[in-house]
Write the C-alpha cells for this entry.
Amino acid sequence: MVRAIGIDLGTTYTVVAVMEGDQPLIVPNAEGQRLTPSVVAFTEEVLVGETARQQAVANPGGTIFSIKRRMGSPYKVKQGEREYNPQKVSALILEKVKRDTEDYLGEKVERAVITVPAYFSDGQRQATKEAGIMAGLDVMRIINEPTAAALAYGLNEEDERTILVWDLGGGTFDVSILQIEKGIFQVRAVSGDSWLGGDDYDRRLMEYLADQHRETYGMDLSKDMKAWQRLREAAEKGKITLSDSMSTSIQMPFVDGNTSPHTSTTLTREEFQRLTRDLLERMIPPTRQALADADLEPQDIHRAILVGGATRMPAVSQLARQLFGKEPYQNLNPDEVVAMGAAIQAGMLLGLIERTILLDVLPLSLGVETQGGLFTRIIHRNTPLPASEGRLFTTAADNQGAVDIHVLQGEAALAVDNLSLGLFQLQDIPPLPRGAPRIQVAFDVDVDGIVHVSATDLLTENSIDVKVLSAKGLPAELASLTGASTQFTPTAGGREHSTSLLSPLPLQQ
Ligand code: AMP
C-alpha cells in the first residue's frame, strides 16, 4: 500500500500522522511520545527530540531550540568545524521522525505533506521544502497549518460553513478564514504575527521571575545560561499549570546551579494574565485584518477553531468568546490536529480520499521595486493558488540597456519595508528613448506558494526566468533536483537605490 505521512514541523514540537483507513492517526516516536520536541543538540553525536531537550541545561550552547523561527534566514549554527543552516537543522528533526515512523509502521515512508504557518513567506516555504528533501522525503505539498486544522475538523462537513482558525503555537500566530462548501475548502483570507506565541509568554514570566530573584538576592540570572535555561523550564511549567489551575507555585531549586538559595514564587492565573495582557491583545489586529480582507463581520463566523498548544490558555478561548460571541471549537487535541489535517491532505493527494478539494491562497502580496523605491504589486494577497499574473513596465532613462527586477513580498508602499525575495537583471535591451521598451514581468505561484518570476522584453522577446530561492539559495545538489536555473542574490532592506529600476506603465483595462 502507498503511504504518505502528514508532518506538523512545529516551533516547539513536531508531530506525525498517517491515514489508517479513512482516519488520521498520530504516530508515536521511538520514545513512545506523540510529540517530538523540535530540539537538536550537538554533542559527540547529534541528538534530536526529547534526548536533546533533556541535556539542554548542561549544554546550552550546543542545543538548538525553535529553529523554525529562523527558516528562510541566512542564520547559521556553528558546531566545531561544521556549519548548519536552518534547513539542515530542520532536516535532522525530519530525519528522526521519518525513521521513527518507518520503525513504527514497519515500512518505508517517502512521501509527505509538511505544514507551515499561513503567514510564512515564499523563502520560508522553500526552506521548509528543502529541509524535507534533505531528510530524504518527497515533499508532495506544503500546506498552511490552519488549513490543515480545518481539514481535520471539517472532513465530514456537508453544510456551507465559514470557519476562522486561530493558531497560536510556540512561536507564531496565524489567523485563517476558510469557506467550506460541499467538501470544497476555500481559504478566504490569512493574516498573523510571525513573532507571537507561547514562547513570548514564557519569556515574560522568566523576566518577571528573574526580576523577583534580583530584588530578593541581588543576582542577575540572565547572565548565566544554565540558570536561564532552568528558568525557562520553570516558567513554561508554571504557564501550563495555570491553564488548569487558578494558582501555582513555581519552584526554582538552586536556579543558578550552585550558590543561590531555593526560590519559590506563587503566581495566580489573574496575575499571569495581567503580566501578559498585551500579548493576548496582539491577537486582535491580525484577526480584524483577516475579517476585513474576507469582507466579513465577526458574527459571520460559524466556527472558531483553536489550534496550537498555546490556545489552551483560558484567556485565549475567553477572547474568542468575546470576539465571535460563540464557544470556540477545541475538542480535537490542539497539538495534534495540524498533523492530522496534513495526513488527510496526503491521503487526498494519493487519491485515498476523494470528496475534498483544497484551495489555498497567497499569504502576502508579490511585486517588484519600481522607480523611487516604490513597491508595485503584481499579485495581491489572498489570491487563490495557483496564481499567474503579469504587468507591463518600461525604462526610466534613455538608452537604458538593462533593468533590475527586484522581487518583493509584503504589503508596504515602500520597497525597503517589504521582504526582499531576490534581485535579477534583464539585459540587452536595445537603445531606445525612456518609456519606449515594453517589459512584461510575470509571476507564477504554485500550489505550495513557491514563486517563479519571468521578465520579457516584448520587442526582442529576450527573456529571463527565475525560480525564487530561499535567502541563501540551494546547495548545488538540490538545485538540480528542483530544476532551479538562476540564483537570486538576496538583498537586505535599505539597499542602495539602483538607477536601472523598472517604471510602471499604466494598467491596461
Ligand atoms: P505548538 O507550537 O502548537 O506545539 O505550541 C507550543 C506552545 O504551546 C508552547 O509555548 C507550549 O508551552 C504551549 N502550551 C502547550 N500546552 C499548554 C497549556 N496546557 N497551556 C498553555 N500553553 C501550553
Notes: Residues 366-504 form a domain with the Substrate Binding Domain Of DNAk; Chain A, domain 1 fold (CATH 2.60.34.10). Confidence is low (pLDDT under 50) at residues 469-498.
